[in-house]
């Protein structure tokens, strides 16, 4: 089965086309990205601007045509933090469906966390034991822990790298004082959530996924992406501290010249590094393994599972106004399967 996964994030819209079958390894066939910075296309009232919505509609329409021409039997289209947090998200979603024919579903933060955990579990297998996973996005941070494919605890916090850059580090370079203030604030913000994750049980393996973690690992000496996904990559707390000291004194333009940092990620890599550092410190972790699979792969795996057992891909109709979660600082799910 050829599937398309269209992921509308805070920074980019990403179309991943894969050949997939239940029990097999999803094989990527093509990957197409567009940088929209949707989280920045929000006005003072918290609504996505007309220009931002126009660009989103045009991009989704273009990517839907690419998926069709690629022979995709189905296009799974999901949006995360930027659309989820927007005050006019229902209007934007309705416009996308009307003008492109694509039904864009909004994932709750906890469902992002759960689906990403599924991908991480499948990548490392049962022998990994209890896994704690950390996922740093543009708008939110997800943390979860579990021994099965469904995590025992899944949390989503509004601590994404892009969000914190806009709110805390507007200057370029950010300045030592602002970096120190953000460090202290993150330490306080993460204490309760990290304690909840640790209460679920000690980890046998701690994993970091997302582009932010991959970039940070590369900057501290991990193998480049060209070496392939199965090369072991890690990020250490000591290496991360040294890196923060280095990149926090650089301008965005200089950071974009570093190997492993794209121009799109350069503005927010300092905040991302601080979130990674704070998460690892709060969880008493010295090393994380970098997983090449994350949310998109989790969506594909869940789709294949749903085809086999007849369950819905997403359990909650998250584009319906009456079921959209309240906009809170933290979003969490406990207790395994729901």
UniProtKB/TrEMBL annotation:
Which reaction(s) does its UniProt entry say it catalyses?
Answer: [phosphate](n) + H2O = [phosphate](n-1) + phosphate + H(+)
Biased region (Basic and acidic residues) positions are: 321-338
Q: Where is the Ppx/GppA phosphatase N-terminal domain?
A: 17-307
Give the EC number(s) listed in the UniProt record: 3.6.1.11
The UniProt similarity line reads: Belongs to the GppA/Ppx family.
Listed GO MF terms: exopolyphosphatase activity
Source species, domain of life? Bacteria
Q: Which SUPFAM superfamilies match?
A: Actin-like ATPase domain
Question: Into which EC class is this enzyme placed?
Answer: hydrolase
Q: Where is this region: Disordered?
A: 317-338
Give the record's keywords alphabetically: Hydrolase
User: What's a Pfam family this protein contains?
Assistant: Ppx-GppA
| Protein name (record) | Exopolyphosphatase 1
Species of the source: Mycolicibacillus trivialis
- Family matches, as PANTHER family: EXOPOLYPHOSPHATASE (PTHR30005), RETROGRADE REGULATION PROTEIN 2 (PTHR30005:SF0)
User: Could you tell me which InterPro entries the record lists for this protein?
Assistant: ATPase_NBD, GppA/Ppx_hydrolase, Ppx_GppA_N
């Amino acid at each position: 089965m050829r599937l398309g996964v269209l992921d509308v994030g805070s920074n980019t819209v990403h179309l991943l086309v894969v050949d997939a079958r239940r029990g097999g390894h999803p094989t990527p066939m093509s990957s197409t990205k567009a940088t929209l910075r949707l989280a920045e296309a929000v006005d003072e009232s918290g609504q996505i601007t007309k220009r931002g919505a126009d660009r989103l509609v045009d991009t989704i329409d273009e990517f839907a045509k690419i998926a069709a021409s690629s022979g995709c039997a189905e296009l799974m289209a999901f949006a995360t933090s930027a659309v989820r947090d927007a005050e006019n998200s229902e209007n934007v979603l309705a416009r996308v469906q009307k003008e492109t024919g694509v039904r864009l579903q909004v994932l709750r933060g906890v469902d992002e966390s759960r689906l990403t955990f599924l991908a991480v579990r499948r990548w490392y297998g049962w022998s990994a034991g209890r896994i704690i996973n950390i996922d740093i996005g543009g708008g939110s941070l997800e943390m979860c822990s579990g021994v099965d494919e469904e995590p025992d605890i899944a949390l989503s916090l509004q601590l994404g790298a892009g969000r914190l850059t806009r709110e805390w580090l507007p200057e370029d370079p950010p300045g030592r004082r602002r970096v120190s203030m953000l460090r202290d604030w993150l330490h306080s913000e993460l204490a309760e959530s990290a304690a909840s994750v640790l209460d679920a049980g000690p980890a046998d393996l701690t994993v970091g996924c997302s582009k932010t973690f991959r970039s940070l690992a590369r900057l501290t000496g991990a193998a480049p992406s060209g070496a392939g996904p199965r090369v072991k990559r890690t990020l250490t707390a000591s290496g991360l501290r040294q890196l923060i000291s280095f990149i926090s004194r650089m301008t965005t333009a200089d950071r974009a010249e570093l190997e492993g940092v794209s121009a799109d990620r350069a503005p927010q890599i300092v905040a991302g590094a601080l979130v990674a550092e704070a998460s690892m410190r709060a969880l008493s972790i010295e090393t994380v393994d970098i997983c090449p699979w994350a949310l998109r792969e989790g969506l594909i795996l869940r789709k294949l599972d749903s085809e086999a057992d007849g369950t819905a891909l997403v359990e909650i109709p998250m584009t319906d106004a009456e079921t959209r979660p309240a906009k809170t600082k933290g979003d969490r799910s406990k207790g395994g399967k729901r």
